[in-house]
Amino acid sequence: MQSESKFLPDFSHIYIESKAQGFNLTKKCIRNFPKAKIIEISDYKSIFNRPRQDFQTQKQSMKLILAIKKPPYIYKGTDILQDGGYKNFYYNTPMLNCLYNCSYCFLQGMYSSANIVVFVNEIDMQDAVKNEIVKRVHKEQPLMLSISYNTDLMAFENILPITKNWIQFAKLNLDLNLEIRTKSGLYHSIKDIESSDQIVLAWTLSPDKVVRKYELNTPPLSKRISAIKLALKDGWKVRLCFDPILYYNNWENDYLELFNKVKSSLNLNQVLDITVGTFRMSNDYFNRIRKSKPNSGLFYQNYKNENGIVSIDSKKKNSIFKLVSDNFSNYLPQNKIHYSI
Ligand code: SF4
Question: How far is the CA of 183 from the centre of ligand 1 (A)?
Fold first, then answer.
């Protein structure tokens, strides 16, 4: 847990693909880190996919890589992602990896490197979204795009205005909705933009005990709640995400405390909806992380493995869902509380 104002990484090295030179995001980055050593490379994968890297060691001193995203620029949502009821649900990856370091994060199993990759060719990614909007199957609904899937984009917003750029893009494309999931307290970085019904700002909330133990470098619960209050006041649609709710000894007490804090701090009539999830991960990522973290309590519990997804058993899952339902069904209609399968 960390105060966000203090948490601005000092990237000692910035690797820049030759073709990424000259883009606005590249120029901004170079300006923001005048002391960084700039190293020109031909392909980001030569750094990012290097063999024998250690994710957690690299986390201690992340490097920044600026690259050109190649197709595919947009992906269909998976079962692990929550779609919040949207039929045309997609995600994209303007950035790989995250400033934060949650112990349960799948990124540790997905990538061998903890370095951060920013794709600077925003227009290519946005053109692909425009094409997909035209091609979407359920024309009666907008295309819902999660832009913060492989990262926490808002946490990076005091470095590069990527969230802002995507919001501005969405405002020009009325059949596009965005979900921006975050644990950040940096709402002020987008505060000067007028709110829009097309955008869902989705804050993940966890008990402070979980934040301290499992959500390294993220802001405390109070900062996230303060950010939500401001966003609601400014008219943004806000989704509350209790995801993952972790199951451990006395989990109920911690989560009850969290739910009471949320109910006493926020006007839930103003909240768009709530999404609820439990620990779940693709088997491959899970096994890779487990191997690299022999002392992790989280990765050495009993899980079930079904269709390539590792998750807690149904009994535990149902007790988690029940606690949420018992606590929030008097505050929000049932169809506004989405449970991950
Ligand atoms: S904030 Fe999200 S993306 Fe970032 S480390 Fe935590 S779980 Fe992973």
Answer: 8
- List, chain by chain if needed, residues with CB within 6 Å of any ligand 1 atom: 98, 100-102, 105, 107, 151-152, 183
Containing structural domain, residue 280: 70-94+121-339
* % the chain with pLDDT above 70: 96
Residue 105 lies inside a defined structural domain of this protein: no
Mutate to test the pocket of ligand 1, among 105, 150, 186 (most ligand atoms within 8 A of CB): 105
Q: Is residue 264 part of a domain?
A: yes
Burial annotation 55-90 (CB, 10 A radius, 16+ → b, else e) = beebbeebbbbbbebeeebbeebeeebbbbebebbb
For residue 6, what pLDDT is reported? 47
Q: Which pLDDT band, with edges at 50, 70 and 90, does 5 fall under?
A: very low
| CATH number of residue 275's parent domain | 3.80.30.30
Per-residue model confidence as pLDDT tens digits over 32-90: 999 999 999 999 999 999 988 999 999 999 999 999 999 999 999 876 555 567 889 99
Distance in angstroms (rounded) separating the CA atoms of residues 237 and 173 = 18
**The pairing of beta strand 64-67 with beta strand 215-216:** unpaired
Strand partners, 15: 39, 65
Q: How many domains does the chain have?
A: 1
Within 8 A by CB and 6+ apart from 6, the residues are none
Ligand 1 atom with least separation from CA of 181: 2
Q: Is the dihedral of CA 71, 77, 83, 85 positive or negative?
A: positive
Q: Strands 273-278, 237-245: parallel, antiparallel or unpaired by DSSP? A: parallel
Name the burial class of residue 276, with classes exposed (0-12), middle (13-18) and buried (19+) by CB atoms within 10 angstroms of its CB: buried
Q: What's the gap in Å between 98 CA and the centre of ligand 1?
A: 6
Residue 45 lies in a domain: no
Task: Give the single-character DSSP code of 23.
Answer: -
Within a domain: residue 103? no
Could you give the CA distance from residue 27 to residue 36 in angstroms, rounded to a whole number? Answer: 13
Does the structure show a pLDDT above 70 at 8?
no
